[in-house]
Amino acid sequence: MQLARRIQQIPPSATLALNAKANELKAQGVDVVNFGVGEPDFETPEHIKEAAIQAIRQGFTRYTPVGGIPDLKEAVCRSFQENLGLSYRPGEIMVSCGGKHALYNLFMVLFQQGDEVVVPAPFWVSYPPMLMLAEAAPVIAPTREENGFRLTAAELKARLTPKTRGLILNSPSNPTGSVYTKKELEALAEVVLEHNLIVISDDIYDRIIFDGAAFCNLAMLGPELKARTFVLNGLSKTYAMTGWRIGYAAGPEAAITAAVNLQSQSTSNPNSIAQKAGVAALNGSQETVARMVEEFAWRRDDIHRRLLEIPGVTSTRPGGAFYIFPNFSAHFSKLTPKPGQTSSQCLAEYLLEEAQVAMVPGAEFGEDSCLRLSFATSRERIATGVDRIKEALGKLK
Ligand SMILES: Cc1ncc(COP(=O)(O)O)c(C=O)c1O
After folding, report:
1. What confidence score (pLDDT) does residue 360 get?
2. Which residue of 33, 282, 303, 339 shows the fewest CB atoms closer than 10 Å?
3. Are both 58 and 141 inside the same structural domain?
4. Total domains in the fold of the chain
5. Is-contact 255 110, C-beta < 8 A?
6. What is the C-alpha separation between 298 and 376, in angstroms, rounded?
7. What is the pLDDT of residues 231-246, one digit of tens each?
């Protein structure tokens, strides 16, 4: 059957595909260490589950307002105010079926054919295909490992053309764990204002931040920037709620209203029960978040140290999220990629077959020198997995 042109250029999500392959091996009884996962290995906290159960019992099972129930929007506004000092009205908030869905809605209403949108690389895998679905052109802006994979003002300027309409920033980053400092953002802000750009600030990992660092985004740098920035967040990562599918965006009301309008013609409201759980997540105790972040920080130190002990491997030290993005390129000369395969894809395949370790090739994130490991797995599995990688790399001749 002839499918629409729109979908023919869109690959399936690479990270989800890798996860599926690792799970398939596991189902066959193979002991796979899966560093591919993009979700916390923690349970959704009990008080959040309980709120969902109560919602079902109380019959909160019907359609809700498309862009989210008032108490959830209010909880989102309060959370922005308390955590970031950002003041939003409920009309400036859209709740969607996951952060990914909120992003998709935003891209569809903000960008169109002829627009260019700057995407710093390494990037989260979904940005380029989603922009292409909106018929906009993703313009990849490579960053450098020496700069912690953070985009500089000069690197941004180098990608601008008269067609540039937007910039996507993701801090803490998936896949690198990099966190922008306020000073770095101020330098980017100058370029954003000068060139009248729209910013999408993907803050989905903003609460998973280490070493007591202060989180900052472009909207926090003053009213002029807030007026052109859309802040994306959600419950998936912070509250270990990936399956519940609640994400949200905040930004200028006219665009948010348009995005809600789009949502009204596709999914309608996000799940009513999950929204009630979301109210409990945002308004309830944040103790579990603190404990999860503490554990991730320990694992970050551990996996970073272990990876650096492998000859030929370098790595930046993640400041947040639960990913690390080491550079394996010193080992690439010993590989023979298949036709059409990149070096990082070839190494990922070798390590899955030889060491039963699943990692995501950096090529999927626009940086082929590296592979991404998620440390959302136990301390013991981290130790086993990195030992196996070391041993398998040692066998490459
Ligand atoms: C950078 C980034 N943004 C957004 C999302 C979307 O998450 P969700 O749709 O579960 O809210 C993810 C999930 O992996 C992510 O890594």
Report:
1. 94
2. 339
3. yes
4. 2
5. yes
6. 11
7. 999 999 999 999 999 9
Cα of 100 from ligand 1 centre, angstroms: 6
Do 28 and 66 share a domain, yes or no? no
In this structure, the residues whose C-beta lies within 6 A of any atom of ligand 1 are: 38, 98-100, 124, 170, 174, 202, 204, 234, 236, 242, 247
Side chain identity, residue 114: G
Q: What does the alpha-carbon distance between residue 12 and residue 135 come to, in Å, rounded to a whole number?
A: 17
242 CA → ligand 1 middle, Å: 9
234 and 206 Cβ atoms separated by less than 8 Å: no
For residue 376, the CA-to-ligand 1 centroid distance in Å is 14
pLDDT band for position 177 (cuts 50, 70, 90)? very high
What distance lies between CA 87 and its chain's CA centroid?
24
Regarding whether 201 and 92 lie in a shared domain, the answer is yes
Whether the predicted model's global pTM rises above the 0.85 cut: yes
What is the spatial distance between Cα 250 and Cα 256, in angstroms, rounded to a whole number?
Answer: 7
Q: For residue 394, report the distance from its CA to the centre of ligand 1, in Å.
A: 35
Pair 55, 200 in one domain: yes
Task: Please tell me whether residues 252 and 105 are part of one structural domain.
Answer: yes
pLDDT in tens, 24-73: 898 999 999 999 988 999 999 999 999 999 999 999 999 999 999 999 99
